[in-house]
Write a structure and sequence with these properties.
The chain has eleven helices and nine strands. The protein is an alpha/beta fold. It folds into two domains: 168 residues, TIM Barrel (Alpha-Beta Barrel), CATH 3.20.20; 68 residues, Orthogonal Bundle (DNA polymerase, domain 1), CATH 1.10.150. It has a five-stranded mixed β-sheet with strand order 3-6-7-8-9. Helix 1 packs across helix 2, helix 4 crosses helix 5 and helix 5 crosses helix 6. The protein is globular, with a radius of gyration of 18 Å.
């Protein structure tokens, strides 16, 4: 329920991802590209050819004050005019940010151009830092995406630029305006060290009509400040919180293609059944 195609910052096309989902024997699949539904719409048109259920999805860029709190949306009306208008805004801000980061890298005498990034973006409409990281690998500035983030473009690194986004409240409202379901992705990346602070954020999101939390997530696929103990205690806290507040429990790999395996995150059968029931699949 969390996967990116080459219409945002993944490396596989929607068609290739559908084939992968079939090969892995998935029962439910959703492409949740950053700030665009073009790839998701391509997959939806083809999804009847496969044995799994398919949900239209998106991951909207959002920030509450200085905290990054993205929002996943599922099963919404993809023709919703309000959603399309705000997606265009977010895509423009993504492009602006890339140019600013490029400027900083060039000031550091690192030879990366927008043409280099365009080669990585391809058919995508939502340029992001992974595209830039891949361009830096091709130019032999770094060897891995993680190295690019850790040395240059990650948060608080020399070439970091904060991107203008919408708020989580607006993101949830946009999903609701299309009769969709809003879910919080990778909650322990929002705040995993202080569960009391995380609960404060969750209370805010609930007041804005958040309907679910991505409790099961592939925290191993990114450099994480969290220990195994923190992740395990965070998951236990989130399960308890979801049960208490009657929230949908979901899971996802956040698959981009470079590493990991599509659908590799374990989700208890009970929660899978709840997801199918919730979406009438």
């Amino acid at each position: 329920m969390h996967c990116h195609s080459n219409f945002s910052d993944g490396i596989y096309s929607p068609e290739e991802l559908l084939e992968l989902a079939q090969q892995e024997g998935l029962k439910l699949f959703s492409i949740t590209d950053h700030d665009t539904i073009e790839g998701a719409n391509v997959a939806e048109k083809m999804s009847n050819n496969y044995s799994f259920a398919y949900l239209t999805g998106i991951e909207l860029s959002a920030r509450h004050e200085q905290t990054k709190i993205e929002i996943l949306g599922y099963n919404f009306d993809s023709t919703n005019a309000r959603l399309h208008e705000r997606m265009m805004f977010l895509q423009e801000k993504r492009s602006e940010r890339i140019f600013k980061i490029l400027g900083k890298l060039n000031e550091m005498n690192l030879d990366v151009t927008y043409d280099d990034i365009l080669k990585q973006i391809g058919s995508g409409v939502s340029p992001g830092r992974p595209h830039l990281a891949r361009a830096m690998i091709e130019k032999k500035i770094v060897k891995t995406i993680n190295e690019a983030f850790e040395k240059y473009i990650g948060n608080e690194k020399p070439a970091y630029v904060q991107r203008e986004t919408i708020t989580p409240q607006e993101a949830i409202d946009l999903i609701l305006s299309g009769n969709g379901t809003a879910v919080l992705p990778h909650p322990l990346l929002v705040e995993g060290e202080n569960l009391q602070k995380l609960e404060e954020y969750l209370e805010l999101l609930l007041s804005w009509k958040l309907k679910g939390i991505e409790v099961y997530y592939n925290y191993d696929h990114i450099p994480s400040f969290l220990s195994k103990r923190q992740i395990n205690s965070g998951i236990k806290f989130l399960i308890k919180y979801c049960k208490k507040n009657d929230l949908l429990i979901t899971g996802g790999t956040d698959f981009h293609g470079e590493s990991g395996k599509l659908g590799s995150i374990f989700i208890p059968r009970e929660e899978i059944e709840n997801i199918f029931s919730y979406f009438n699949l």
